[in-house]
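Researcher: Structure for this, please.
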Amino acid sequence: MSRHERNYHLVGWTLFLICAVFFIVSAALSGDMLYLAGSVIFFVACIAFIIPLMSKKRHVVPTNERQRVQDEGPKSSA
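Model: Predicted structure, token format:
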């Protein structure tokens, strides 16, 4: 995943996280425990998707390696 694409994913999940906070506040104000439980689960799930995007350790194929693979094509087993 390119850095640019990773940033778009991070922004998207952050927006979902903000929505989850609003859902939690709304559920708490209305007193609906099922709504609150679902909102908290949604919040935790959003964090679970953000954690890999925030990790420093990522496997990224260098640009020159990608170009070499594209130029050579698939390797044959013959």
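Researcher: Any notable elements?
Model: Residues 3-56 form one domain. Residues 20 and 32 are 15 Å apart (CA to CA).
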